[in-house]
Amino acid sequence: MAAPRLGIIIADERALRAARSDDPVDLVILRSTLVNPPRAAGATKLRSRFRELHPNAEVYPYVWHLVSHGPTDGLRDLGSRSLPGDPRAFGHLQDTPEVRGAWESTLRCATAMESTTVVLRTPASFTPGGIYRARLRRFVAERAAEGLHVVWEAEGLWEPPSTLAVARELDMTTIVPAFDGTGRPFSGSLERRWLRVDGAGPTTHLRPALADSLLLALDARDEEATILFGGPRGYANLRAFAKAIDNF
Fold it and tell me: Are 37 and 105 in contact (CB under 8 A)?
C-alpha cells in the first residue's frame, strides 16, 4: 500500500490553533469559504499562515454557497457576507449574473491562495435530474477553462455509482465518507474518490482499532488514497491515523 495523502478540513480558522509544524498535512481544505469566502487580502494572509504551518501542503477552498446552495438550503443565515440580488437567482449552479458574481468572489479567493482546485459542495436539493447534471457539466467545463480542477462533495440522493459515473465523465474527484454510521470503513473503489473522516459519531475519537480497520481496507486495494480529517478533533485524528500508518 502506498502511503495515503493526508488532509485537514478547516471549517473555522480557529481550528488552526491545534496545528503543529510537524503534522504530516498534504492538503488543507478550507470549508470556511463555503459560508464566508475571505476577500483577496484576507485570503493572501491565510495562505501565508498555511505556508508557515504546513509549507508543503496544497490549499483548496470550498466554493461559496451563493454559487451552490439555494436560499432554503440553510447556509445563507450563517454567513456575514452576501451579494445584492433576488435570493432565488443564487445557488444551484444557475447561469445568472448573481451566481457568476458569487463565483468571481470564490475565484479571487482561490487565486490569492494559489489554488489549482476548488471543492464544490452541492446540497440535497441539488438532485440527480437532467437539469442539475447539465448545470454541473457547464460549471466544471467553465472551471477547466480557467485552469481549475473541481472536487465534488454531493449531499442527498446521489448514490456512489452515479457520482462516480459523473466524475468519470467530467474528470472530477469526489469526496465520500471514510466510515459509515456504524464505523465500518468505506469498501468501494478509490477511483476519483477522497475519503472524509468527519470527526463525529464513531470517529469523534479515531481509536486505533478504527484507524487499523481503514488501513486494512486500503491495503486490500492497489490504489492511491487521500484521507481528509474534519471536525473539532481533525488534527488529533490525523495524527492518530499517521501513527497507525507508521505502526501498520
Answer: yes
